Amino acid sequence: MIPSVNRAGADTRGLLYYLYDTGKHEDHIDPRLIASFDGMSPDPGRDPNGLTDLQRLLDQPMMALAQHARPAKHVWHTSVRADPGDRILSDAEWAGIARRIVAATGIDPGDGEPGCRWAAVRHADDHIHIVATLVTEDGHRPDDFRSGTRAQAEARLIEKELGLHQVAPGDGTAAQRPTSAERHKAERQGRERTAREELRETVRRAVTGVRSDDEFFDRLTAAGLLIRKREAPSGDLLGYKVALPDDLNKDGQPVFYPGARLAPDLSLPRIRERWSGDAQDTPPTTRREEMIRTGPGSAAAARRRTASAGWQAVLVIEHGEDAVVAAHIAATGEVLDALAKTSAAHTRRELRDAATAFERASRSHIRAVRGHDRALRQAARDLIRGGPALGRGEDGATTAMAIDMLVFLITAAAHWHARKGHAQQAEAATRAATHLRTAYQAAAAHPLSVLHQRGRRLSQPVLQRQTILLRKALPGLAEKILAEPGWHALAATITDAEAAGHDPAALLSHAVERRELDTADSVSDVLIWRLRRLADLPADATGMPENSTAKSPTAARPPARTAASGRRFGEEAPGNTR
Predict the structure, then answer these.
(1) Which of 69, 348, 397, 411 could be stapled to 540 by a disulfide with Cβ–Cβ 3.0 to 4.6 Å?
(2) Which residues are paired to 35 by β-bridges?
(3) What is the C-alpha to C-alpha distance for residues 386 and 370, in angstroms, rounded to an integer?
(4) In the Cβ-directed half-sphere of 575, how many Cα atoms lie within 13 Å?
């Protein structure tokens, strides 16, 4: 149950007219007054000419004041909406909810204390609206400080008592919800989302991996947004506002939203914090990894680097200091936005939904200390610069590789938030992981099928040798892996690693060290992508030679150097904490 307390307005009758108007809004089915401050207020739903009577009744305490003492904005308004999965509540139940909300928020506290005049209107099955005048019966301002927070706390109690869906408690770091007026305006304009929501997503994507004000505003311009900048007398840039070109007010002017009103971390000062700790040059590990066979600057290379950055970030989230963890989680949101923007159509929708869900998980009261997250931010930047990826070949397979690692990263973020008591953030991260798993299935289906067929064609002696190797290298996981459908694809990958000159036992051990696998749907899938990344094998095995299966065990050969670096496997690049 979500109460949404709106800012005070100045037109009681205008709000009542909107609530009782059945001609423009599909959910305004049977508007009716279900509760009021005195239990006897006239119901305009039964008397079409009664709007003025109700307005005058509600405004009477304010009108009794001298003209100069009347508040300029005196209308308090909140909607209370049930979860879509909740049962339909009766008018009597909604009336009880309305009384509890006005008491909890200080609008009408009861117990003999003077309250404001209010009325609750129901015009749909799933929600009510409460309208009040912000002057008490004795002519004073009500004690409605932080009424939104108080309404949320009362809603949590109501949910438990009525057996409704229990919403995770908030902490004040969520983005502002669209108002009812914004939602209805979007419906009239035929938009799926409100202007506020579209702008928030566009700005969020524009900030992904940026390193300067100019780059940020260039991206906003390229996205088609209107921009107003706020400057100090000295000429220094202080802030910005954005608008959709076709979102106009009643005067035909664009409706601008400040960045901070879109989300707390989209104000200009907070955005600048993201790149304040970034190195302006590409990190050494990025230059090295760009030499892999996918080619520098390609979409596939960017996805491999994303998987590598995610590998390092999981360890930070599991064991790092809170402020550093918060920075990595925020940067993970940028990676998701970049991946959604650049991936092929068959995964784009789920990746976009994952990024949207994770947006709530990227903020908490633990303030991020930027700089330590530069590897993730660089990965996001590389994804954007690498451009759109194809849904097949190396692009498609490395997309699956990146998503696989991101599932672990986001699951680790969900666990961290849960340990810190961040209920809404943990829930959001869990939802994001669900979308990612669906995207992974779409991305991985073809490349894993190719590997599975190659594994099925392995000779019995080779397959037996790989089984023995697995049991020796990973005794605690071997039997689980051997029972999975992905075992043959993993066997083919181990064989490819052998053919490339790697010690498969060392490779397997490195792939699982310091990384838990309990949350993996398929351990073999996880190991396939980690092995292919660590050994610099093509993610797409379509063109791999079949005769690689005849190679002898690696133990008979000296350890090979990796294709990317010329170092022996397991040696770290300078500054690499992998």
Answers:
(1) 397
(2) 120
(3) 24
(4) 11
| pLDDT-based confidence at residue 284 (cuts at 50, 70, 90) | very low
Q: Strand, helix or coil at 145?
A: coil
471 burial level (CB within 10 Å; 0-12, 13-18, 19+): middle
Q: Which helix (H) or strand (E) holds 201?
A: helix 195-206
Distance between CA 578 and CA 563 in Å, rounded?
17
The order of strands in the sheet holding 2-9 is 2-9, 75-81, 127-136, 116-122, 32-36
Q: Is 48 exposed, middle or buried (0-12, 13-18, 19+ CB in 10 A)?
A: exposed
CA distance 72 to 11: 10
Residues β-bridged to residue 75: 9, 133
Cα angle value 347/350/356 (rounded, 5°): 135
Number of residues in the chain: 578
What whole-number distance in Å separates Cα of residue 544 and Cα of residue 458?
A: 13
Specify the residue for token string 């109690």.
Answer: 157
Structure confidence by residue, pLDDT tens digits, 388-437? 999 899 999 999 999 999 999 999 999 999 999 999 999 999 999 999 99
The tokens 């149950």 sit on which residue? 1
Q: Are 495 and 553 in contact (CB under 8 A)?
A: no
User: Poorest-confidence range of 15-24, 369-378, 489-498?
Assistant: 15-24
Distance between CA atoms of 170 and 517, rounded to whole angstroms?
30
Lookup result for tokens 């983005």: 175
Cβ neighbors of 350 (< 8 A, separation 6 or more) are 435, 436, 438, 439, 442
Q: Tokens 């690498």, residue?
A: 386
Q: Tell me, what DSSP letter sits at residue 365?
A: S
Q: Identify the H or E element spanning 177.
A: none
Dist CA 442 CA 317 (whole Å): 27
111-116's contacts with Cβ under 8 Å and 24+ in sequence apart are: 114/138, 114/140, 115/37, 115/142, 116/37, 116/61, 116/76, 116/142
DSSP per-residue letters across 446-475: HHHHHHHHHHHTS-HHHHHHHHHHHHHH-T
Q: State the amino acid at position 555 in one-letter form.
A: A
3-state secondary structure of 117: strand
Q: Is 132 helix (H, G, I), strand (E, B) or coil?
A: strand
Backbone angles phi, psi at 533, to 5 degrees: -75, -45
How far apart (Å, rounded) are the C-alpha atoms in residues 313 and 410? 10
CA 444 to chain centre: 23
What one-letter code names the amino acid at 251? D
The one-letter amino acid at 296: P
The share of the chain scoring above pLDDT 90, in percent, equals 68
Using one digit for the tens of pLDDT, what is the confidence trace for 164-220? Answer: 988 877 777 888 888 777 887 888 888 889 999 999 999 999 999 999 999 999 999
244 and 266 in contact (C-beta within 8 Å)?
no
**Interatomic CA distance for residues 396 and 409, integer angstroms:** 20
pLDDT at 45 over 50: yes
Best CA proximity match to 524, nearest among 351, 398, 402, 404: 404
104 to 111, 156, 348, 484: CA distances (angstroms)? 12, 12, 43, 54
Residue 144 DSSP label: -
How far the first Cα of the chain sits from its last, in Å, is: 44
Give the separation between CA 179 and CA 161, rounded to whole angstroms.
27
Distance CA 173, CA 421 (A): 14
